[in-house]
Design goal:
Blueprint lengths: L1 E2 L16 H17 L2 H10 L3 H8 L4 H9 L5 H9 L1 H23 L6 E6 L5 H9 L4 E7 L5 H10 L6 E5 L15 E4 L8 H12 L7 E7 L6 H8 L8 H10 L3 E7 L5 E7 L1
Parallel strand pairs: 1-7, 2-3, 2-5, 3-4, 5-6
Antiparallel strand pairs: 6-8, 7-8
Length: 281
């Protein structure tokens, strides 16, 4: 079942948007050029212009460094000014960050526990979104951040320290399907933003089942779908080596339903690239 009432979830948020004219120009000119120009030529241009976003994706497609560069939105290189500042995908990522943090903050405040709400973050990277949420929330919270690679943790700990959250964020390296062995208490909320688009259906379901088993009744999970509406999937695959799995919100709700989640709320990011989906046990 999906809840239709999403009032209050986006109040006051200032999203990045694209005018109808810019959408038309992108669809008619920018996206075809990016998608069908020779990939070798595009990679050469990005190397010559020292694109930090391209270098980050070549080293780790879709990894935390490219995410942080897109989140920051203030690149120095000419190519990155186009890719990050005006690229639909980067704009949508920043919108997802706003929407995801708002959803998590509201759920932290609504958690049914007398203790600080405990958020389990899967595929967490450095924890930018959960940091935003913890600062926005009115009630105390703490987070356990799990990632298969510990590469992002130094940056994450530095970020947590700058924000005054270092004593409330615990970083754990490991497979997110083994979460039961990593926990030091009950889980009130699970964050899975930014990982489903890199995982096949069976892995998404197995992770969802693993976290469902450690969540109390009524606890919430937050994740996102991904639409090809960004218009540059061919560019990302050929030039960045970034292979993403596009699923609409309905498909992702079906997968989560197989793990026992239900009562879904879907929050739509205004560029149509991401939906933030909230489910409960």
């Amino acid at each position: 079942m999906e809840r239709s009432d999403t009032a209050g979830w986006t109040d006051g948020l200032v999203f990045e948007r694209v005018s109808a004219l810019r959408r038309g120009v992108k669809a008619a000119l920018v996206h075809p050029l990016a998608n069908y120009m020779p990939a070798a030529l595009l990679r050469w241009v990005l190397r010559v212009t020292e694109s930090e976003l391209a270098a980050a994706n070549w080293a780790d497609p879709g990894g935390w460094r490219s995410m942080v560069i897109s989140y920051d939105g203030k690149p120095r290189q000419i190519a990155d000014k186009v890719l990050v500042s005006a690229g639909t995908m980067s704009m949508a990522l920043r919108n997802r960050r706003l929407l995801g943090a708002r959803a998590l903050a509201k759920l932290i405040d609504a958690a049914d526990t007398a203790e600080p709400a405990h958020v389990l973050c899967l595929g967490a990277g450095p924890g930018c979104i959960i940091s935003d949420a913890m600062l926005q929330a009115r009630r105390p919270s703490r987070a356990t951040l799990v990632d298969l690679s510990a590469d992002a943790f130094d940056y994450g700990r530095s970020l947590a320290d700058r924000l005054g959250l270092s004593d409330r964020m615990r970083f754990v390296q490991g497979d997110v399907r083994d979460v039961a062995a990593m926990l030091d208490g009950r889980v009130d909320l699970v964050k899975m933003l930014g990982i489903c688009e890199y995982l096949p259906d069976d892995v998404v379901v197995s992770i969802a089942r693993a976290v469902h088993a450690v969540m109390p009744g009524g606890a919430s999970i937050v994740l996102n779908s991904l639409s090809p509406a960004h218009g540059t999937d061919r560019f990302f695959r050929r030039v960045f080596g970034l292979h993403m799995i596009h699923r609409d919100a309905s498909r992702l709700r079906d997968l989560m339903g197989q793990a026992g989640f239900g009562n879904f709320t879907t929050l739509r990011e205004p560029l149509g690239v991401y939906d933030v989906i909230i489910g409960s046990t």
